[in-house]
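User: Can you fold this complex?
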Amino acid sequence: TPYTVQVGRDCTDIFIAQLADRYAGKTFAVITDDHVNALYGDRFVAQMQRAGLTCCKFVFPHGETHKSLATVQQICEFCHQNQLTRSDMMLALGGGIVGDIAGFAAAMYLRGIAYVQVPTTLLAQIDSSVGGKTAANLPQGKNLIGCFWQPVAVLCDTAFLDTLPEAYFADGIGEAVKYGAIWDRDLFLQMQGGFRDHLEEIVARCVAIKAEVVRQDEFDTGVRMLLNFGHTMGHAIERHSNFAVSHGKAVAMGMVMMAAACVAGGQCPPDVLHQLCRCLQKNKLATHYSAPVADLLPAAMGDKKRDGSTISIVQIAEIGRCVITKLALDDFKAFLLAAQPLLD
Ligand code: NAD
Ligand code: ZN
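Assistant: Here's the predicted assembly.
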């Protein structure tokens, strides 16, 4: 990546000093949500000011309903009130929602200004802060509007994760296991042994994988599709459960379904499925969803990755290696239904 990604514990001071160096004289609009603001907002802004940076802070309520065009407009109006020019900057301090919406606002304000990502959830650190996908929701669905807009710098300080509630932490683990499964057997095996003891190392490795995949395919037309492993069925599970099952947990179950289908179809040995289940269970993630595969197929066929009469899916060949395959819709159905006996 052309931009700096700093990963570590308690590295916020160093990062801010670098910002102050590189961007002296610019005004920063710090964008955050109410939860993160209560925990870190004032301290973070004070740190920036001590380093000599000028900043103003915009806080919006947490939650997906505020990942909206209305919030994008409020952010842009806030930047205008504070007289930000095209050479000034935004900084997203928070989880994936803050990152997506601040990134989108940065891309729109004055036709685009630079922005910095300071992700504070595990999911945002290893996934959404790197890659440059920004988004807002429409009433009709999630992430239906957005653009590609890369940040100029990313800070992943794992100290933020000390306050992250366990349920959100689990969502990040689901995505982390995915990186191991698609790209890096050693990382996968390390995660099989647990997470917390090697947190910085695991975050750094996941970020490096995401950055490498995005470097090879910034606009998501090829290898970046590997990042969707477990997501076709994961999205179907999210929708089927009325979003009671959160994203990372649904992805975990989706990966298991895909692996089971691959075992049934002879694309990988049964041990791959066992290892995946063991790794997820070791990290307290459920591997089984309550409804049968057949009930999920309608939602799965509506997936973004569908292209007319075919659908692109990510199959697992071995731990650390996945392949992208295009299937006709009927073959896709048959492929997944064959997984059912292995899931019972
Ligand atoms: P989130 O932003 O809603 O954060 C989860 C909750 O934790 C929020 O209530 C937040 O206020 C709180 N929180 C954040 N940091 C905290 C901390 N350090 N301590 C305590 N509480 C904290 O959710 P998320 O899981 O980070 O991100 C989900 C969003 O990311 C979704 O909207 C999804 O579409 C998006 N996403 C984007 C990409 C991408 O490539 N752009 C990739 C994956 C997901
Ligand atoms: Zn995901």
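The mean pLDDT is 95. The two ends are 43 Å apart (CA to CA).
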